[in-house]
Structure formats: structure tokens, C-alpha cells
Amino acid sequence: MDAGGTATDRRRAKAAVFVLACLLAGMAPHWLPAAQSFWPAISLAVALGGYSIRTVLLESLRAARAQAGSPAASGWAGSLADRCPAVDVVVAARDEQAVISRLVEHLAQLQYPAEQLKLWVVDDASTDRTPALLAALQQRFPQLQVVRREADAGGGKSGALNLVLQQLKGRWMLVLDADAQLQSDTLARLIPFAEQGGWAAVQLRKAVANSDVNLLTRAQAMEMALDAVIQQGRLAAGGVAELRGNGQLLRRDAVLTSGGFNEATVTDDLDLSFRLLVHAQPIGVMWDPPVQEEAVLTLRALLRQRQRWAEGGLQRFFDYAPQLLSGSLSGRQRLDLGCFFLLQYAMPMLAVADLLGAVATGTLPCIWPLSIVALGLSGLAIVSGCLRPSEGPALPRMNLWSIALGIVYLVHWFVVIPWVSMRMALLPKRLVWAKTLHLGEPADLDHDAAATA
After folding, report:
1. CA 388, CA 381: separation in Å to the nearest integer?
2. Structural domain boundaries of the chain?
């Protein structure tokens, strides 16, 4: 058996152990005396709830105040041209005719010394008008470098990023999705924040540009605010922050030291987060300015996207478990990862096992105290994030209806995580990098058509 097959079998075995452990843990309380059946869930609710309150409400607020008061938040003192390291802005683009022109035009307006900034687009075997649009854009913007990948190159987005990584010379690389939108002063504020903070990578807060389209996009805007609040809180509590793909600033030498981008994963950002972690390369989080992106418009597209996120998220825990449990991480980091794993991945599986146990024994569900605490704290994080001063698109206004929408929306993870976990445990792995469709605005399409006419 080849190395790839062996790795796949190991992942399936680890996924099977995870699923079996959750099923046993979720069903076991139903065979306890009625007076004791709720104690496991209540104990977990107290322990994880206490950690979450400290992380979400206390540490995240402290981190927000500290970042707002930081000199780096308003730019680097002194002459920008004298102190700016070289930056490569990198975009992996596949069939992005709807948004690629808008992106390049916005990147060309970034406030950063021209001699220290290069723009790279990896045309990842596009079959639409993306190659023609890029050729026209190169005539207008000489700083734009285009690298073409063939259809059989493999490795998904990670493969595209590794290809261009070999050609980069700058100290920093800013990785963007093709639908990204940045404020013109983003680099002028982001680079000082990264340099002064000693970070190996920094993740910009992700803001939804089309939150007013429907209830689903509005809920995703709340979820992105929640995620940034949790990220800042985890980091401030001595835990771990993670990359989110779009709007991630990476120090090039740290990426190379960590082995580059993993081409055997469906989530390059989550995998790289753990690669940097085990190589002691710290990741920071920046609330403002944000990176704007499109939210998916339909439930089908959302579930497809979230299945990929769930699979990549679980896979990295399985792949890097030995390093995560080693002495290379601090006690706070291991505690943070443990709590995050239980809340994000184990709890949805426990909820399913709890329902199965209730049906099998004719008893009441037992896990609901933990689920209520987790969803309630998520609601508090949504409120905390959406009420925080922010740049970019306006965050959803908070009222009882909005909070209820956000909490109900998060229940989709109780479907996605168990489904993906069972699939990973039972079915052979198929590495499929599922592209998220970017639609842009009608004006973008009209502009692109005129540019190539």
C-alpha cells in the first residue's frame, strides 16, 4: 500500500475511534439511574461554559480594548516608505470572471510603496474568461504577475499557493480569495500590527459584503463576527488563534519552516494554522480593518461549504494529534484546544448519540444542559461582536429576532459535524477541493465585458 493509502486508513481509523467514543459517551448516561443521568452533561456544561464565558466575554473584550488602543491600529509612526517590508499579495483564482477585475483594481489602490508590493494571481486552470481578463489587467497594471496552472496539477488551492510560494521574495505574503475586498489602508495598518506584535501570521476579521441579501447571508455575517470574537478571546486567554483562508497575512519564512501548504487537505488555512502552531509560530487576529467577502446565498451551498470546513477541521486534529499532545505546546494552549475540540466537534456528535440513547431506552435526552449553554454563549458572542465598533459593512443590528436567528442558524453544525464524522469513519477519503462560487455584482460583469471587448 502506498503512503497516501496508509495515511487515509489512519484517518479513517481515527475518525472511527472518535465516532465510537462520542456514541458511547452520549448514550452511557441513559443507563444510569434517573437521578444521576444529567450529571455528566451538567459537569461538562459548567466546565466548558466557565471557560467559554472567560474566553468569549472577558478576554475578548480585553483584547478588543487593547487592540483599539494600540498605535499599530492607526498605522506605523514615521515614514511609511522608510519602514515597509516587501509584501506579495497572492490570489488563487479558478473561474473567477465575475470578480477578478474588481479585485485587481482594488489591490492596485492599496496604500503601500509600489516598489515593495507585488500582486500575484495563480490562474488555477480556469475554463471561463478569467485568463483573458487577467491578460487585459496585466496591460493596465504592470505590477500584476500571473502564474498559470494546468488542470491536472492537483493539490487544490494548496497546490496553487505552493507553486507561487517558490517564486516569492517578500517578507510577507497576504493570501486573499478572489472575492476579497480591502480598504485602501489595509496594508499600511496590517503590516505594522504584525511587525510590532511579533506575529508569524495575522488573520483579518472576515466581514460579509452581501449580508442584506437574505436571512442566510445575514446569519453568516453574525457568524463571522462571533468567530472573530472567539478568536480574539482564545488568543487573549493564552490559547490558539486560527487562519481563515481569506485575509491571512503570512511571514514567508514561517510558512517555509512549517513545510508550506498541505496539498492533502481540503482546508489549507486550518491545516497551516496547526503547522505554524507546532513550529511555535504565533498567529494574531486583527479586528479592523476587515477583509470583505461574499456569503453563500443558498442552504445547499452553505452545507456543501461547511462539510468541507468540518472535514478539514477534524482531519487536522487527527493528523497533528501527537504534536498537539506533546510538550511543545503550553498548558493553556492544550486546554484551549481541548475545550474547542469538545465544543466544536464532540458536542454535536454527543447530541446525536444522546437522541439515539433516549430512543433506545425510552428516557429523556440528557445532553441538553450542555447544548443550551453552548448555544446561549454563542448568542452572547454574536451580540458582543455585532455591538462592537467596526469598519467595513455594517454588522446586523441586534434585537431578539436577530439573536434568535443567529442561534437557530448555528444548529446546522449539529447536522454537518455528525454527518461528516460518520462519512470520514466509514467511507474512503476522496480529496475534493470544492470551490465556492463567487458572483460579484452585475456592474462587475458589465465592466469585465467592456474591458475585453
Report:
1. 11
2. 1-27+35-453
Site of grid cell 514567508: 252
Q: How far apart are CA 56 and CA 340, in angstroms?
A: 12
Contact between 448 and 133 under an 8 Å Cβ cutoff? The reply is: yes
Residue 153 has what DSSP assignment?
Answer: -
Q: Are 343 and 239 in contact (CB under 8 A)?
A: no
Strand order in the sheet with 201-208: 144-149, 117-124, 87-93, 172-176, 248-251, 201-208, 283-293
User: Considering the entire predicted model, what is its pTM?
Assistant: 0.87
If you average pLDDT over residues 165-178, what whole number do you get? Answer: 94
Give residue 443's identity as a one-letter amino acid code: A
pLDDT value, residue 309: 94
Place of cell 452585475: 442
User: Options 3.30.700.10, 3.10.180.10, 3.90.550.10, 1.10.10.1800; which CATH number does 1-27+35-453 get?
Assistant: 3.90.550.10
129-156 pLDDT, tens digit each: 999 999 999 999 989 999 998 887 788 8
Classify burial at 176, counting beta carbons within 10 Å of its beta carbon; exposed 0-12, middle 13-18, buried 19 or more.
Answer: buried
Contact 157, 264 (CB under 8 A): no
Question: What's at 250, amino acid-wise?
Answer: L
In angstroms, the Cα distances linking 12 to 26, 159, 365 are 21, 24, 29
Grid cell listed for 326: 506533546
Contacts within 8 Å (CB) and 24+ apart, 235-238? 235/63, 235/283, 235/284, 235/285, 236/55, 236/59, 236/60, 236/62, 236/63, 236/66, 237/54, 237/55, 237/59, 237/332, 237/336, 238/330, 238/332, 238/333, 238/336
3-state DSSP assignment of residue 292: strand
Continuous segment of H or E residues that includes residue 268: helix 268-278
Cα-flanking dihedrals φ and ψ of residue 69, to 5°? Answer: -90, 0
The residue among 94, 157, 106 whose CA lies nearest residue 444 is 106
Write out the H or E segment, with its range, that includes residue 449: helix 442-451
